[in-house]
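Summary for the funding panel

The consortium committed to producing paired sequence-structure records for every protein in the target list. Below we show the first two records in order, beginning with the earlier of the two.
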Amino acid sequence: MRTSGTVPKWKLEKVEELSRLIREYPVVGIVNMENIPARTLQKMRAKLRGEVLIKMSKKSIMQHAIEKAAREEKSIAGLKDRLRGQPAFIFSKMNPFKLYKILEENKVPAPAKPNSIAPRDIVVPKGETPFSPGPLLGELQALGIQTEIKGGKIAVKKDTVVAREGEVIDAKLANILSRLGIEPMEVGLDLIAAYEAGTVFLPEVLRVDEEELRDQLALAYMQAVNLSVNSGFLTRETAPIAIAKAYREALALAVEAAIPEPGAVDRLLTKAHLQMLSLATKLDDSALDDELRQSLSSAAASASEKPVKEKKAKEEPEEEKEKEPDEEEAAAGLGALFG
């Protein structure tokens, strides 16, 4: 900047004002105001009032304001390289990620202009149009849009993609989209960069998929719990899970080793009874007493009836009822396991 003797006073005051705001606000952003209609900008300012402060100025003045603020905090000088298009400062107390999200949510639809880039796949939807048959019919067909005449009006037969994301929209397509009332573009404040606590954040970092992030956090939490429990490094959250796991393992060990601990006695008795029935199926009938013979006979009958019941259940599904398996069914099913 030239010496103060030749620089207009208003410029010096503007630089001082902007540099002061840069120092005062915890978050300072650069937004691109290019191609935003004045009326749209006014609506955005009204929506964002109280959330952000937008200050427009010449690039040279903004550069000098950044340089002046950088005398106290060098890291903010990184914003100088982000002054593109028609830049403006945006000041806020919200974090850069929330600021980026709010600016994106406040963008409004806008018609496509010739040579603009499709922000996403552009679709001409199926349905009737307000236009009578005429030159437009041929123009639509030239774009690969299948049409027909319904009630004296042109109708689109099916949804048709007329431009893929990243493709250039030519003048003909822009005109057709405008006539059909399709506004594929978005007009709003594009956050080019945001500064906070010594770091300059760019859009690719601030653009966060919240659903994906939530899923990643949930997965990380489950993995951390799993690591904590299996490594024995317990925390307030994982101690109850580890205690329950240890109890189940101790109970399984007691049953397997036939240790008659209070919590394992019932399971040991059940296991022994099933093993007894399984062994009895391998003995000669003469070695069985009447009670045991009756138990085995009932178990065999239950086993033979089970496929019939299952078939009937498939043919005539009934409401399921919770039922504890009886000893005879268990004996028939577990015979091979304990043999």
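The next record, for a separate protein in the list, is shown here:
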Amino acid sequence: MENGGFNMGEVIKKEYEIIRTRFHSRAADISEDVADIQPAGFNNNIRWNIGHVLVATEKFLFADQGNLPAQYYEFFNPGTKPADWNGEVPTIAVLIQQLEDQYNRIKDLPNEKFNENLAEPLLGNNTVGELAVFGCFHESYHLGQIMAMKRMIEASLAKSN
């Protein structure tokens, strides 16, 4: 064990387990129609936020491995928006399955991987582990956005019925 009796890789994997379990339970029941509504005051929709989490985590931990279709980066990178999408975007079910597959790849990373230095700092992070911890924060942030959007959309739909 390192760092006084705990292994940072195991701690990071546990955090991903917690956030992905919550993410999955809250995103799995979002309908395709609701996923594409962009509430006033938000820059994107729920589908974009789910895809963005998938793409960002992929870039943080599995860059250049080609695990996702190239078009996902055109759909879900920072600065993109649904109004600019060309082509068929993945369904919510597909995105959630890919998040699950990605989580399984995270669990399979050797714990030592998190101690590796990045080729160059990214978002103020110097190691894979620091970037992974940032990824958990990033995912939590977007889950909050998704839940706020969902509540706003459902309230708006209830008023119109």
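Regarding this second record: Helices lie at 8-27, 32-35, 46-62, 71-76, 92-108, 128-160. The mean pLDDT is 93.
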